[in-house]
Design brief:
The termini are far apart. The chain has helices at residues 7-10, 22-38, 44-67, 78-83, 88-97, 108-124, 127-130, 155-161, 164-174, 221-224, 226-231, 233-236, 293-299, 328-331, 378-393, 420-425, and strands spanning 75-77, 99-103, 148-149, 180-181, 184-185, 188-192, 199-202, 211-215, 269-274, 285-287, 320-321, 335-336, 345-349, 354-356, 366-370, 375-376. Helix 3 (44-67) runs antiparallel to helix 13. It has 16 helices and 16 strands. The chain has a seven-stranded mixed sheet with strand order 1-2-13-9-15-7-3. It has a five-stranded antiparallel sheet with strand order 11-8-14-10-12, with no helix packed on it. The protein has a single domain, classed as Jelly Rolls (Sandwich). It is 34% helix and 13% strand. It is of the alpha+beta class. A hairpin with a 2-residue loop joins strand 4 and strand 5 (184-185).
Length: 429
């Protein structure tokens, strides 16, 4: 078998910016990766069979859990994380599933107060009178007006981002990864960058179309850029048994091709904090709780039933779609979160397939703040001053549509209100 530092990986063609001729680039990279895999002595189909067998075993286990009425999502109390008493069995299950509910991450009254403060913030600055519609090509599909608020710099969001309780959970999540290898520290698990994202507010009685299943890690860049070719080397050189979704080697170097749904930062986990109680059947987040699914997604376009200039629907400037047409096996494991209460937080591995179920006449509110775990690393260090400039001017961060609602708003969180964690998160000290 070819080793993970195979010269075939280094020899793959690569495009560090979006190719001018995308169909031609797709044909080139698919042919090159096939050749790389075949140099290991196995065909692409044989390598795909290995990961499919691994997925099939995990799908069967998740289906068995769901048949009992239990949730496939692990749950851990915040206090156990804070006290350092999370068991090895709990850690093992989180790594197996790639997702987690942190119960009582924040006190319920605190979360409800943050929710109220957000309402006061947007209403006090006439957001609804000035709302211009969705600024991106993905979240606009949910059908609410609005559901995703392009708001980043409220006191509620910033207080949560720079809080000790958030840092405690982020550090726990980061330590699930192997952050150092090859004599390189790929990221600092004990320091997070302050990656700004939006809020969701879905009112009682709302009808929402939800969001289709997808991943946010990247698009064609996952096959076509040098850093991702190295990061997923065990997929592309045939040594699939060595693939580890928790290995950060080269992961913090990969750029993303530009698009309205891109992320310039490296996130170990995506996450949100609940600002309202939400029942499990009210249009909630679903995921495929199998981190190894990423390897399957990357191999799938290389199989013989996919045209040479086709990547199973993956294109630039759009999210990476996952569906029954191309990905029937892992889709069988799609699992919704259990009911959550205000103050709980929800986390999923950055490669995990996820979506949001549709809902008609929603019972109760569905409000969240999106706050990920994005540990300090060169990629996040480079984005920090860009994020800080947006914060200081009340602008929309560069990863998001240039809507800039908050530039002239009253009661925006200020630079002077940053604590030590906030300043470090922006790279100010």
């Amino acid at each position: 078998m070819v080793s993970s530092d195979s010269r075939t990986i280094e020899a793959l063609p690569h495009w560090e910016s979006t190719p001018d001729d995308i169909p031609s680039a797709i044909r080139q990279i698919k042919a090159a990766i096939r050749e790389s895999i075949e140099s290991s002595g196995r065909s692409v189909a044989e390598v795909a069979d290995v990961i499919e067998a691994r997925l099939a075993e995990k799908v069967a286990k998740i289906e068995s859990v769901k048949q009992t009425g239990e949730s496939a999502w692990p749950e851990i109390r915040y206090q156990d994380i804070s006290d350092g008493v999370v068991s090895a069995e709990q850690v093992s299950l989180v790594k197996e599933r790639g997702c987690l509910i942190v119960r009582g991450h924040f006190e319920r009254d605190q979360a409800l107060e943050w929710d109220k403060q957000i309402v006061d913030y947007v209403e006090g600055n006439s957001f609804f009178e000035n709302y211009r519609g969705s600024g991106d090509d993905f979240f606009g599909s949910v059908g609410s007006r609005p559901e995703i608020y392009p708001i980043y710099w409220s006191h509620s969001q910033m207080q949560a981002r720079q809080s000790d309780r958030m840092a405690t959970v982020q550090s726990f999540m980061n330590h699930l990864w192997t952050s150092s290898s090859m004599e390189v520290e790929w990221f600092d698990p004990n320091r997070d960058s302050l990656y700004p994202d939006r809020i969701r507010r879905r009112p009682e009685g709302a009808d929402s179309a939800g969001l289709g299943t997808h991943i946010d890690t990247g698009t064609l860049d996952l096959w076509m850029t040098k850093a991702y070719q190295r990061a997923f080397r065990h997929v592309y050189d045939g040594s699939i048994e060595e693939y580890d979704p928790w290995d950060a080697t080269f992961r913090t170097e990969g750029p993303q091709y530009p698009g309205t749904t891109m992320c310039s930062a490296f996130r170990t986990f995506q996450g949100w904090t609940a600002l309202s109680d939400m029942d499990h059947d009210q249009g909630v987040l679903h995921s495929i709780p199998i981190p190894e699914t990423m390897a399957y997604l990357l191999l799938r376009p290389l199989l013989d039933d996919v045209a040479d200039d086709e990547m199973c629907g993956v294109m630039v400037s759009s999210v990476f779609p996952v569906n029954e047409k191309w990905h029937e096996l892992p889709m069988q494991a799609l699992s919704g979160i259990p009911s959550v209460r205000a103050g709980d937080s929800v986390w999923w591995h950055c490669d995990l397939v996820h979506g949001v179920a549709p809902v008609l006449d929603q019972k109760g509110w569905g409000n969240v703040m999106y706050i990920p775990s994005s540990p300090w690393c060169p990629r996040n260090r480079d984005y920090a001053p860009i994020a800080f400039e947006a914060f200081a001017t009340g602008s929309s961060p560069s990863d998001f549509p240039a809507e800039h609602y908050e530039r002239d708003w009253n009661n925006r969180f200020t630079v002077e209100e940053l604590n030590e964690r906030g300043r470090r998160g922006f790279g100010l000290e």
